[in-house]
Please model this.
Amino acid sequence: MDDFIHNQENGLAKFIKYGLSNLWLVYEGNKVVAFFALSKDALVLNSDDIRTICRDGKKAVTLPEQDDDKFWEREKFPAIEIDYLAVCKEKREEQDEHLGTALIAKIEQFALTDRLSATLFLTVEALDTEKYSAVKFYRCCGFETSEKGRIQNYYRIRNGEQPTTQRMYKIIIPIDT
Model:
């Protein structure tokens, strides 16, 4: 990830230069303690993902009954992707302040109030390596692992590759009961 962030030719700077991603810096005084980058995304759901969202008879949106099933037949759903989220080590180790969790909540609020386009989901390719995994953090923030991502990782492993991320999503509109 460091290489991608510092790579001026093909890294994060290029994504920002071309408007593909937007970067936010979080300061404490004059010190950067966190940053995140966001971009527009589209989430493709399979039937297992939809069952997860609609589990126990809950529906994510209130629609007239005759339209409910058709809504979930869509191929893609609008999302905002968390391209990068990094919190300095000192802030990650603080027990009473959860800066990463607070940033996810702020990103969610931003997505819900985005006037340019409707957003139903937050997505992330959560880093998942032997050295470090962000999957547990994102699960604590309400993200689910995408079934499509699991299938892609299965084929990567089968082809001798070691996956380094897990595709995850979080529905951000209120779930009606």
Notes: The chain has a mean pLDDT of 79. Helices lie at 2-6, 12-17, 47-53, 65-71, 89-93, 99-112, 135-140, 147-158. The radius of gyration is 17 Å.
